[in-house]
Task: structure prediction
Amino acid sequence: MDVESACREELKNVAEKARQRAEKVTAEVNERLRRIVADGTSELNITDVLTDDERESITRLEIPVGVTSIGDYAFSDCTRLTSVVIPNSVTSVGYGTFSGCSGLTSVAIPDSVTDIGDYAFFNCHSLTSVTMPDSVTSIGHEAFILCSELNEIVFRRKTKNDVKQMDNYPWGVENPETIIKYEP
Result:
């Protein structure tokens, strides 16, 4: 085997090990979240959830039913996180909760959420779309600032006038007239 082929093979092995590690960490974190909630916790805080190593590895997040509040910075800087499942038990997303999650591509906010905190999705470079239910009545200051790929925030059952009257409009969104959309 020549040197170039050997290097390619070694890179494949390293990539496969990293993928396996990410899957293992993702499964461990999601299981720990289920145990935390089973023990009676309804708010997830940064100290409850992830180590720095886990922040760099987790790719999928499934917040368990029973969580009512996702605390400040709970999942910030999870750079490899691509998807989040938020259950209908959650009513608020805290300050900076998903800030710096540069791999996150889309988020569906469940019907139970009423409040989204300041900077909740700050610096989520890959975020392209967010779906908002009519239950959301408050979106924090610059909640979507530096989301450079964001091309739509869809509000279900809210009018343009309803949305523009919400505090902090347009929440750090560049070009709100083209990005913010409304569904009946």
About this structure: The first helix runs from residue 3 to 38. Helices lie at 3-38, 46-49, 52-55, 160-164, 176-179. The mean pLDDT is 84.
